[in-house]
């Protein structure tokens, strides 16, 4: 890609790099490449600049820490090893700069870049370990967008710890369940991606290219519940989040999740949770979500 910049136009290096990283993350790909920039009549590419820098005897040298350590941490998150992840956070390893590359001269932007890299790696490994594709990438997008509202290293550090613990707890919950077949995993991913729609067993069967009766039997055999019960639980879990962290009315929540009516939503919610949506909101509004206790209560 060639970008022409006239001498009268000012463009900060940090802004250009940030745009490049955001583009890569939006497409869920972490790549390292180079962009040719024409600065007036200079015609020097980033690649050529790197060759000169690499040959410079005065180049600042950083001995990067072994990648094994970083990957062991990423794997701990993807394996749902909450204790290891928590210990890493308590040791403030994310904030240690020894052996870590400098991606920006601005310390806050530098830390943001490292946050994006960590999030991308964790997302990939969690996906490989069984997290639903849409859930993994939507979580990634959510946490990376939070960087827009953060301006200090302390805030980035806090967000990092919350992000990796969130992924680790979700993976711990995910891996505690039985390992499902390819068809059932595909079903769960479809349900998650279309949770706001009305989903019928026929929709899932058509998506997978199997008969509805076969899929219904297989789903019940592997998960212990019917497709309709599973869909209802997922919708109720989504409703819990909306009740906790939004001001949507009962009617709006019922409509967003495609319940047939407000009364139907209230009835279904009470059957699953044991209390009405109003009582649930009164009790838990804006209280931090504990994934482990939620999983225990839903069993």
List the defining traits of the structure above.
299 residues; mainly alpha; 4 domains; two-stranded parallel sheet; 15 helices; 2 strands; disordered C terminus
Quick take:
The chain contains 15 helices and two strands. The protein has 299 residues and is mainly α.
Q: H/E order of the elements?
A: EHEHHHHHHHHHHHHHH
Helix content bin = 55-70%
Beta-strand level of the residues, as a percent range? under 5%
Count the strands? 2
Q: Over all CA atoms, what is the radius of gyration?
A: 24 Å
Helices and strands: which structural class?
mainly alpha
Regions with little confidence, pLDDT below 50 for 5+ residues: 1-43, 291-299
Spatial sequence of strands, sheet with the most strands = 1-2
Number of domains: 4
Overall 3D form: globular
Please work out how many helical segments DSSP would assign: 15
State the distance separating the first and last CA atoms: 52 Å
Major sheet characteristics = 2 strands, parallel
Average residue-wise pLDDT: 80
């Amino acid at each position: 890609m060639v970008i022409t910049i006239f001498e009268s136009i000012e463009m900060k290096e940090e802004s250009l790099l940030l745009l490049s990283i955001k583009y890569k993350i939006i497409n869920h790909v972490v790549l390292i490449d180079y962009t040719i920039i024409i600065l007036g009549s200079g015609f020097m590419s980033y690649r050529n600049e790197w060759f000169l820098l690499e040959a410079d005897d005065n180049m600042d040298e950083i001995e990067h820490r072994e990648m094994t350590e970083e990957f062991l941490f990423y794997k701990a998150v993807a394996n749902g090893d909450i204790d290891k992840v928590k210990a890493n956070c308590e040791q403030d390893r994310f904030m240690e700069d020894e052996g870590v590359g400098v991606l920006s001269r601005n310390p806050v932007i530098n830390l943001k870049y490292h946050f994006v890299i960590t999030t991308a790696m964790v997302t990939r490994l969690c996906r490989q370990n069984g997290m639903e594709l849409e859930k993994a990438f939507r979580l990634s997008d959510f946490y990376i967008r939070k960087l827009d509202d953060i301006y200090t290293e302390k805030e980035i550090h806090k967000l990092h710890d919350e992000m990796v613990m969130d992924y680790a707890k979700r993976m711990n919950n995910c891996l505690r369940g039985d390992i499902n077949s390819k068809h059932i995993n595909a079903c769960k991913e479809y349900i998650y991606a279309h949770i706001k729609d009305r989903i019928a067993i026929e929709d899932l069967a058509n998506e997978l290219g199997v008969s509805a009766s076969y899929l219904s039997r297989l789903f019940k055999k592997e998960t212990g519940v019917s497709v309709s019960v599973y869909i209802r639980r997922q919708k109720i879990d989504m409703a819990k989040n909306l009740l906790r962290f939004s001001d949507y009315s009962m009617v709006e929540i019922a409509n967003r999740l495609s319940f047939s009516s407000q009364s139907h939503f209230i009835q279904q919610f009470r059957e699953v949770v044991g209390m009405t949506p109003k009582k649930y909101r009164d009790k838990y509004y804006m209280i931090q979500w504990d994934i482990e206790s939620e999983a225990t209560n839903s069993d």
